[in-house]
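Kindly review this record before class:
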Amino acid sequence: MSYLRYVKIIGTMHVSPKSRKEVREMILKERPDAIAIELDQQRFYAIQSPRKLTFQEALKLGRSALLTYVLMKVEEKIGEEFGMKPGEEMKEAIYMSGLLGVPLYLIDEDIRVIMEKLLKAPFREKLFLFLESALVFLPIAPSGEENSEDIMENYKIMMQRFKTRYPYLFKVLVEERNEIMARNLKKIIDELKRMGLKKPKVIAVVGLGHEKGIERSLNSYKEQRFIKSKTNL
């Protein structure tokens, strides 16, 4: 038996307004024993703070901060097009964790480690990323209303193009993080089983691009057996 049977993964589009509703409805329906989200500790605190990194601050902090700033602006621009700020579905999961009184786990890789890896990207990929990122600061003409199927299809095409154009960045941002998040979910299941839950239920809220990769990894792990430890009183 694989670990996947204990985990319900919600693959969201970080900038889609429907994602927040989907997260809330799924958590209320499943009533999980734990909720996991695609954040690390630093981003967990940042997402709940109204204060954002400024360009002037990024300049003073160096290359890693500048890269963080550019990526943040890219996501914000996409969010404007969809009518939702980045991270709202993560905030909803955090809120639901408190509302239901279930533990919340942060399963993503440390953002500082990710940034260090990105700075080691091939010059060609960094140059293309910079040129494409610059376009998000320009106004985008509205393309008309799109239904959810169109948006989903466009998202899949975008991910495939990203993988083809940026193989190193795709490996760092998608594939390696898939494995890290899957291993962390495995640890959560093992911890819940040690506590005596025979069939723990975990909901994991991650970006749509991570869903299938995490599921494949969880499905490949062999389930461990645990005996509930006795506590001396």
